[in-house]
Every structure is written in structure tokens, then in C-alpha cells.
Specification:
The chain is an alpha/beta fold and 204 residues long. It is 39% helix and 10% strand. A five-stranded parallel sheet has the order 2-1-3-4-5, sandwiched between helices. The structure holds pyridoxal-5'-phosphate.
């Protein structure tokens, strides 16, 4: 029977019901610890310490420093912040104008790099993938130029599930002195996110 109660939701990788443990953990922050964490009063300080505790928890999972964690409202916002920040900082310091990415990125990366090219005059090279959606590290290496400032390769694809050879690509970026960004939105919770091993500088 085709009633709403018989519908089956098959889009959990896009978004999923909030885990009841998360609902419970977040409950105090609606109306008990609600203040602006930047405010100097004790209400604000309570919010600030909750925020820093959360930052430490995430840093422990990723094995990085808490100061390296930036909270955003979505994966799209995280990709935008990382790509624009890295690109504009590189331009500001005169390091170059060229970005390497792939043909199978989520729009959060694809449209952002399109806009960096069309409105902000960055040059963008999109490395192709094979029939299984895999990016070749050799193709990434060949695409890197002396003026390349950023490489962005998604860790796991949201449509076909391909996991990219992150360790190899990261090693190439490190050897060539280029920042490495990855969209790991679909990898989080399913694959280990070893930032150091993958030589990742920026991860959404
Ligand atoms: C690979 C990938 N990157 C980015 C996003 C965007 O995340 P959000 O919907 O949180 O903006 C998604 C969303 O499904 C995704 O699958």
C-alpha cells in the first residue's frame, strides 16, 4: 500500500535521523547553556567551555590539534571555506594561481572551483577518472605545475562509493609543496581519517 507510513527512506548518506544519543547530549544547549560563547559573562563562559570540549573531542578522533578544528554548518560550507581560504591566501602571498581537482567532485567542490575560475581568475585542471571512478596519482602528479597552490580530491564518492588512493596523492602533494584538500564527507564514520598518513592539510 502506498501510504506515507510505507515509504522507505534510502538517502541516509545525504542525511539521516539524528542519533538519540546526540539528541540527549545536545539537549542542555537549547535553553540551559544557551549564551553567546564570545560573551564575557558566566553564561557565555559555560557555552565557551562546552564548545572547546566538543572541539577537543573531534580533535581526538582526528588525531589533530583542537585549534585545527573549525566548526561549520554543513559539508558544503566546510568545502567552500577551505578552498576559498587556501586559494585566496595563496594568491595574496603570490604563490600561484592554479588548482588541481577531479571530474567527479560533489558540487560543493565542483561549483566552488568553477566560481574561483570564472569570477576570480584561478586556473583549474580537472583530472579524469577511470571506469571505476578512480583518480590516478600519476595524473595528479602530471597536472601539478610550478604555480599550483592547491589539490582537491574527494576521499569517497557520494554516488558510486569509490575511495581514492589518498596516501599516494597526499605524498605527491607534500613532495611538490602543494596544499592538499579532501572532501571526506562520505568517508567520515566509515573509513579511518588519518590526516598525517594521508598528508591532508584541509579536510571537510
Ligand atoms: C561528498 C559530499 N560532499 C559534500 C556534501 C555536502 O554536504 P552538506 O549537505 O552537509 O552541505 C555532500 C552531501 O551529501 C557529499 O556527499
Amino acid at each position: 500500500m502506498n501510504t506515507p507510513n510505507h515509504r522507505i527512506y534510502l538517502d541516509h548518506s545525504a542525511t539521516t535521523p539524528v542519533d538519540p544519543r546526540v539528541v540527549e547530549a545536545m539537549a542542555p544547549y537549547w535553553n540551559e547553556i544557551f549564551a553567546n560563547n564570545e560573551s564575557a559573562h558566566t553564561f557565555g563562559q559555560a557555552a565557551a567551555s562546552a564548545l572547546e570540549e566538543a572541539r577537543q573531542t573531534v580533535a581526538d578522533v582526528l588525531n589533530c590539534r583542537p585549534s585545527e578544528i573549525v566548526f561549520t554548518a554543513s559539508g558544503t560550507e566546510a568545502d567552500n571555506l577551505a578552498l576559498r581560504g587556501a586559494a585566496w591566501a595563496a594568491r595574496q602571498s603570490g604563490r600561484g594561481n592554479h588548482i588541481v581537482t577531479t571530474t567527479i567532485e560533489h558540487h560543493a567542490v565542483g561549483h566552488t572551483t568553477d566560481q574561483l575560475r570564472d569570477l576570480f581568475d584561478f586556473e583549474v585542471t580537472r583530472v579524469p577518472v577511470d571506469e571505476r571512478g578512480r583518480v590516478s596519482p600519476d595524473d595528479v602528479a602530471a597536472a601539478i605545475r610550478p604555480d599550483t597552490v592547491l589539490v582537491s580530491v574527494m576521499m569517497a564518492n557520494n554516488e558510486i562509493g569509490t575511495v581514492q588512493p589518498m596516501v599516494k596523492i597526499g605524498r605527491i602533494c607534500r613532495e611538490r609543496g602543494v596544499l592538499f584538500h579532501t572532501d571526506a564527507v562520505q568517508a567520515a564514520g566509515r573509513l579511518p581519517l588519518e590526516l598525517d598518513n594521508m598528508n591532508v592539510d584541509l579536510m571537510a
